[in-house]
């Protein structure tokens, strides 16, 4: 509480400057889980983003420390840390345009993302309740795994509070897209900046479907293609293994999360044609019982502007998609059932 107040006073000067701008130029971004492995570098990247005018950093421990540290960086945004005091979380959230949620436990070697469900489901449910109460208009970016289940958890909580707007809820799958363009560039010896691979489906194992047929290298096939698809689907395991018990991807995830937040902020300011693959409440496969699906989504001032379909797929990718839909259906139901049983 005290630290939060002190941080606010210290940066009052910057705040004044920010408030002299018109309200449409003000963008408060809150990070829940800001002191964690992802939260810290993500907050650093957001501090460097000129679209962000106010950064609210909440964690069950360590928020004010991270905020004090970042607040010395000479960019124009204010940074305030919040702790789990009775009003800490709601103060962090109030007035936020974007709320990023990387709170929760990461994987250890041998674990799947689904193994995190028991711990992270209740963390995300409780944070979602707070967002629904304090900033129901915010765009929510869910990073905490298993994303395939935590996004439906947020939607159920919002529905139960009567504030659900599917246009404003996003599962962050950007890291799969970042990995796909990097990995294909390594296979082809190209610059990853020129590689774009749409990745659709969900965010774990076989639910991740890279559409190489829509990349710059549609003719990739045989063992090279199979290996690349597998690496994109299970790239996270490489990091979990290399960190040897110390967690999963944090730095590349922070990069991916910051990129997605930046895309939303640009779209909110009226930039047209901003498209990012993301896991959203989607009409594409609802007739097959799949309520949420990641595909390329055009972003706009209200969040989701237009959900793009996956296009015509070759047989190989159709098979991958089938396996993805099957897995997604179960993961999504698990999230919905959790909130029904543990409201
Ligand atoms: P971490 O353990 O380093 O950090 C998590 C932070 O959350 C900690 O600072 C902890 O104090 C905080 N926290 C726990 N409960 C909280 C609560 N109720 N409210 C606020 N903060 C709370 O974990 P890391 O590596 O940052 O990973 C976070 C999550 O992100 C994990 O679930 C991980 O699986 C997921 N992840 C998602 C990716 C994606 O592509 N969507 C990629 C990599 C990780």
Describe this structure in words.
This protein has about 350 residues and is of the alpha/beta class. The chain has 2 domains: about 30-170, NAD(P)-binding Rossmann-like Domain (Rossmann fold, 3-Layer(aba) Sandwich); about 175-330, L-2-Hydroxyisocaproate Dehydrogenase, Chain A, domain 2 (Alpha-Beta Complex). Helix content is about 45%, strand content about 15%. It has helices at about 1-10, 10-20, 40-45, 65-70, 90-95, 115-135, 145-160, 175-190, 220-245, 250-270, 315-340; strands at about 30, 55-60, 80, 100, 140, 170, 200, 210, 275-280, 290-300, 305. The strands form 3 sheets. A 6-stranded parallel sheet has the order 3-2-1-4-5-6, sandwiched between helices. A 3-stranded antiparallel sheet has the order 9-10-11. Strand 5, helix 7 (about 145-160) and strand 6 form a beta-alpha-beta unit. Helix 3 crosses helix 10 (about 250-270), helix 7 packs across helix 11 and helix 8 packs across helix 9. It is globular, with a radius of gyration of 20 Å. It starts with a helix and ends with a helix. Residues about 1-25 have low confidence and may be disordered. It binds 1,4-dihydronicotinamide adenine dinucleotide. 1,4-dihydronicotinamide adenine dinucleotide binds near residues 104 and 127.
């Amino acid at each position: 509480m005290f630290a939060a107040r002190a941080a606010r006073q210290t940066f009052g000067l910057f705040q004044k400057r920010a408030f002299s701008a018109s309200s449409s130029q003000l963008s408060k971004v809150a990070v829940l889980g800001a002191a964690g492995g992802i939260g810290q570098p993500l907050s650093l990247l957001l501090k460097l983003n000129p679209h962000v005018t106010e950064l609210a950093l909440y964690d069950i421990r360590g928020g004010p420390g991270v905020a004090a540290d970042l607040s010395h960086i000479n960019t124009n945004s204010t940074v305030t840390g919040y702790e789990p005091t009775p009003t800490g979380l709601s103060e962090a959230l109030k007035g936020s345009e974007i709320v990023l949620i990387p709170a929760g436990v990461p994987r250890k070697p041998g674990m799947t993302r689904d193994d995190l469900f028991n711990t992270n489901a209740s963390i995300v449910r409780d944070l979602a309740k707070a967002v629904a109460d304090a900033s129901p208009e915010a765009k929510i970016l869910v990073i905490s795994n298993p994303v395939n289940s935590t996004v439906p958890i947020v939607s159920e909580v919002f529905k139960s509070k009567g504030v659900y707007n599917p246009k404003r809820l996003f599962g962050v799958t950007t890291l799969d897209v970042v990995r796909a363009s990097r990995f294909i560039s390594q296979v082809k010896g190209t610059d990853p900046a020129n590689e774009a691979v749409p990745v659709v489906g969900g965010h774990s194992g076989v639910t991740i479907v890279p559409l190489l047929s829509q990349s710059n290298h549609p003719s990739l096939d045989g063992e090279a293609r199979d290996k690349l698809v597998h690496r994109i689907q299970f790239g996270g395991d490489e990091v979990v293994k290399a960190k040897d018990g110390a967690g999963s991807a944090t730095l590349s995830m922070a990069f991916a999360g910051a990129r997605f937040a930046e895309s939303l902020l640009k779209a909110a300011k009226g930039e047209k044609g901003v498209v990012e693959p993301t896991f959203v409440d989607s009409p594409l496969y609802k007739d097959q019982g799949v309520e949420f699906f990641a595909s390329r989504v055009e972003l706009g001032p209200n969040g989701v502007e237009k959900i793009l379909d996956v296009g015509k797929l070759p047989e190989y990718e159709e098979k991958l998609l089938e396996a993805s839909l099957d897995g997604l259906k179960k993961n999504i139901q698990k999230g919905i059932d959790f909130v029904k049983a543990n409201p």
